[in-house]
């Protein structure tokens, strides 16, 4: 019997955890599979191991692991694959497949642009966009965000678009925001490239509020219909949904 195990990052923020669960439950309602379980990599429960065990207890013989991660950085290259490798060694009779992170997607960038235009009716060329990534020690994130910046430039007539990070990469959010505020005559539109609310997004919000109307903050990406559509398609691909 086929199953899907969703793996979200996890957070110490109760609001962020509830937001992740609610979002994933909407995905599960649209997916025609009898066994679907939610799990978290860290900081929230159930753990990946607990979610996997629940799939087994319900009779799963074919489990697809779907990471709810935007980019393929450290967690996607090491932590999650290590867990999957361990499961495969312990349960050789069970087919286990790990799907990729969402990655850099035209559809996500289209959703960001659509939300900016809906939220800011009087968007001006001298406004700027500051993308805020979670950050990682993995150097590939710089290339990913460079792609995202270029995709935004092709879609939106704004002079300045740049990226900053909340941890483990430079420039920091504080430096990135101060640079945009110094160099921009218009407003700074802050786009958190984060899926859910949490402590990191709360930090962003507190800082943005200090600048009043000079800084406009967008919501997390899980609020964008494009993200939901992408995940529903991942779950609905034929090799997952063809039940035995």
TrEMBL record:
Q: Which GO terms describe its molecular function?
A: sirohydrochlorin ferrochelatase activity
Keyword list (alphabetical) reads: Lyase, Metal-binding
Which is one Pfam family of this protein? CbiX
Report the top EC class in one word. lyase
Question: Per its UniProt entry, which superkingdom is the organism in?
Answer: Bacteria
Q: Which residues form a coiled coil?
A: none
Looking at the UniProt entry, the stretches that span the membrane are none
Ion transport among keywords: no
Q: Which SUPFAM superfamilies match?
A: Chelatase (SSF53800)
List its EC numbers. 4.99.1.4
Q: What is this protein called?
A: Sirohydrochlorin ferrochelatase
Q: Which organism is it from?
A: Anoxybacillus andreesenii
């Amino acid at each position: 019997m086929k199953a899907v195990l969703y793996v979200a990052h996890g957070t110490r923020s109760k609001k962020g955890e509830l937001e992740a669960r609610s979002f994933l439950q909407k995905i599960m309602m649209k997916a025609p599979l009898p066994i679907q379980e939610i799990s978290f990599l860290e900081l929230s429960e159930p753990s990946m191991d607990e979610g996997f065990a629940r799939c087994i207890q319900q009779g799963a013989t074919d489990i697809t692991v779907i990471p709810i991660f935007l980019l393929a950085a450290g967690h996607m290259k090491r932590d999650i694959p290590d867990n999957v490798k361990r499961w495969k060694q312990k349960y050789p009779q069970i087919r286990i497949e790990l799907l990729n992170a969402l990655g850099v997607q035209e559809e996500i960038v289209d959703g960001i642009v659509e939300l900016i235009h809906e939220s800011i009716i009087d968007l001006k060329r001298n406004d700027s966009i500051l993308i805020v990534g979670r950050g990682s020690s993995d150097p590939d994130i710089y290339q990913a965000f460079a792609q995202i910046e270029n995709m935004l430039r092709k879609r939106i007539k704004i002079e300045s678009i740049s990226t900053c990070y909340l941890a483990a990469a430079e420039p920091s959010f504080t430096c990135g925001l101060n640079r945009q505020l110094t160099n921009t005559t218009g407003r700074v539109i802050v786009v958190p490239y984060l899926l859910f609310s949490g402590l990191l997004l709360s930090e962003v919000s507190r800082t943005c509020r200090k600048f009043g109307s000079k800084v406009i903050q967008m919501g997390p990406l899980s609020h964008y219909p494009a993200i939901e559509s992408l995940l529903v398609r991942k779950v609905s691909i034929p090799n997952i949904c063809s039940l035995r």
